Amino acid sequence: MAHSIAPLETLAEWQSFCQQAKLAEVNPKRLRLFPAASLTIDLSGQRYSTALQDAANQLLQARNLHQWQQQLLGGEPVNTTENRAAWHTMLRAPAPIAEVVKERERMNAFIRHADATRRWRHIVHIGIGGSDWGVRLTVNAFGYTKLWRNVRFVANIDGHAIASGTADLNPHDTLIVIASKSFSTAETLLNAQRAIEWLQSAGVSDPYSQIVAITANTEAAQAFGVPNTQIFKLWDWVGGRFSVWSAVSLTTALAVNSDVIAGMHAGAAAMDQHFEEAPWENNAPIQMALAGLINRSIFGYGSLNIAPYDARLSDLVPYLQQLEMESLGKSVDLEGNPVTVPTGPAVWGMPGTDAQHTFFQWLHQGSDGAPVDFIVCQGADHDWLEHHQCLLANCLAQREAMLVGKNYEQALNECLRQGHDPDTAAWLAKHRVHQGGRPNTLIVLPRLSPYTLGALLALYEHKIAVQARIWGINPFDQWGVEYGKNLATGIINEFKNPAQDSHQRHTPDASTQHWIETFKRVGKGA
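The structure assignment produced for this chain is given below.
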């Protein structure tokens, strides 16, 4: 089935864009700021020229970006391989459709009743991937000092996860939240079954009264035993990695405050409006997308480092890892043809200043390096000004070192000033040279609030969508993940039924078959 998108490398506009990108430079003296939904995105550390911007506009026109934006934001089936919309923006729209309003009101009523009756001193949130990372991020970002309710997260299928997730909790005052779009995710359902058994073993007379499900498969949740009044709906047009805007955030609202969700919706909606209305030259997500495209597809950087200079955003990195790598980890275009330029980078990182003592040496002087997204809050929510000034200074200094660098002459003079003899100084200076010109972006939040976090997450969502459009790939499916799940199901069946040898019959994989046979003996005294 054709989807009328030409291979990127065949476009004259792409060839022109590549040519201008190679001619453009990172100019530390040029300031390029993009205000958007209360954020400021500083792209001064990325390649730019007016000729490059002109070429970018022509490329975006060739990819019919404006039309595609309207289709995306209008709920049309842009997820072509599954014939679905990717309409997560509707969940945070100022005037959402009636079914979204209804489900939001149901969730808020549940929260109000729980708060009024002071129920659920503990919450065990069971979900994985998109049903987990966004909730972890928001709970830790806004409940970092104190939570009214104790929240535990259980994602991994490893039995140690559910064991630690329920340890030392009062089962009679614990709410189990099961978040699974399909309600068939193996890790989530197995952990949920253990949680129910934990409630039963503690003498809870009606354990299912302490279960909430968030899913698009309400029938499966009912069959599992969850009361219909405690099932909150997802829609098939909400991808898992975009579900933080949905009832998946019930745990956040219970743990922190329902106003957090409303604030995030407002910030994301403001970024949606900016993305839809701002001219391409001033559009922050589009300009970030273009910079990332240059770094990945033209200059070959294999990864993108995320450096949030805020301890409350420790879970932002894995959240963006899933958002970017599950969306952009594709190698065929919408027509099913191979994409011959590099697509989505590996995403990694950790909060500064911890990162500086872990891998920044590689970023500064490694042979490969990686573009860096520095993220920082201008204002803090604690009383120690010295701490925040040091944090801001470290962020700016690390970025300046990557941007400006240090040449040999500067390093030599530095060594001489430190008292080294000329020969030693000449040798040591070679080790102190910083290349400079390493691409980076600075994203400044006025403060960390639900509004600014919502805007930040939406910024990345739209950046990714634009990159996918230019590459000609579908950022809304994840068939690679599904294949591995299917293989796991077959192996699990062999573990449960040792006489089966279906895997051996169908797979010429000696190593996997060896370990299947070895692991079959686990728990059997071997």
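Interim note for the steering committee: The first helix runs from residue 12 to 23. The mean pLDDT is 94.
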